[in-house]
Amino acid sequence: MVLHDWEKIFERKISEIALSEDPAHDLLHFKRVVSLAKKLSEKEKGVLEIIIPSAWLHDFVIIPKNSPLRSQASKLSAEKAIEFLKLINYPAQYFEGIIHAIHGHSFSANIEVKTLEAKIVQDADRLDGIGAIGVARCFATAGVLKRTFYNLNDPFCNSREPDDLLYTLDHFFEKLFKTAETLKTISGREEGIKRVQSMRTYLAFLKEEIE
Length: 211
Hints:
Shape: globular
Number of helices: 9
Strand content: under 5%
Mean pLDDT: 92
Radius of gyration: 18 Å
Distance between the termini: 58 Å
Largest sheet: none
Order of helices and strands: HHHHHHHHH
Number of strands: 0
Low-confidence stretches: none
């Protein structure tokens, strides 16, 4: 079976898992991460037989961001993904690489990624969290968690430490801008620079509207 045919199976399975009540982790998120992973792989020359299933299945087990089990999500996803891949008879020679890529993609897991494929999948997932789509996902998550948009007195954290458990806008300063600094591949970092600029442009327009 060619990789394109495997992808159809991965997408069908993920369409059953992706949470419609969480727009930040719906099927469109998986599609974007896969697309990004492919683009990065074209430049970085990674093994697609590892990258594509890892990108499709990276959030095979979805745990809410405010759950105490959040740090275990990528480990559980890797385990369940391999169970699924065994069930559909995906070539076992790629399992080790897939496990590492899925386990290592998450911020909360804090795993050092050591393979090119894992770096590509991690970069693809993190890139989807920044830029214009990152802004959309950030506020979508705020809606799910019923979190206030910004601090009235200091919305841009000029004189206080950001606290994204309370204020959505603080997440830009606590995590989103820093995400670009964690990207591992050259092509990922190049894209990250563009996406950071789009977020700064958004905040500049927002500043005009709310201050």
